[in-house]
Amino acid sequence: MADLTTCCGPETQATCCAPAEKEACCGDGSCGCGASADVREQVRDRYAAAARTAQPGHVLSLGCGVPTAVADLHEGETVLDLGAGGGADVLISAGRVGPTGRAIGLDMTDEMLELARANAAAASVKNVEFVKGYIEDIPLPDGSVDVVISNCVINLSADKPKVLREAARVLRPGGRLAVSDVIADPDMDAATRANMAQWTGCIAGALTRGEFEAALTAAGLGEIEITETHRVHAHAGSAIIRARKPV
Ligand SMILES: C[S@@+](CC[C@H](N)C(=O)[O-])C[C@H]1O[C@@H](n2cnc3c(N)ncnc32)[C@H](O)[C@@H]1O
What we know:
With 247 residues, the protein is α/β, with parallel strands linked by helices.
């Protein structure tokens, strides 16, 4: 595994993942963006194992907040949940948008998708769909979603600027982003940053508030609000992050 402090740290990713920098920074595939496949596999292993231990019919929440509480969902809207896991927030969203709306859960882990579909069937919720794919490459058309939500997932990505660009792409003009995620303190220590278990546990990959704001702005989103709700680690807190795609 690459040294996450020097290669996959958020500051390095922010520049390394710019197209002009890729070749020099990631050419040998051993670090930076080139390491993202390795990060993904370790994340997938952890959450596949979690899904396998879940009780069928018991909706599993591995989130760090309640994005649906602040997403201000309305009847008829289309909601996309990035990294939907067992589907808890998708099922809540489906109820809020009603039969004329739709809630889509995106996840890369087969075991989670299977669990989420079983949970939706057990709850007899019809206006939901669970789609396999990566949050860095969302398999939906431009401007097709009213609201993007996510609960403790963006921090897990090795290319967070790309995730936010993809979220902005699929949002319609005026569409909203309402995400719960971990925000790192600027002084998060190098040992925590370099620890893969802390990465897959949603801590080590977290952006700082300033980095998150910068990445949202770079993705073309505005009206940015980041509010810490509670501490989850000595060097990190959970936050509600809201933004809007300009009309
Ligand atoms: C911490 S769990 C959160 C699940 C759910 N949001 C919840 O609140 O219970 C992370 C989920 O994101 C998925 N995930 C992580 N990285 C992903 C990626 N790059 N693309 C798609 N899904 C991803 C994992 O498979 C897992 O189901």
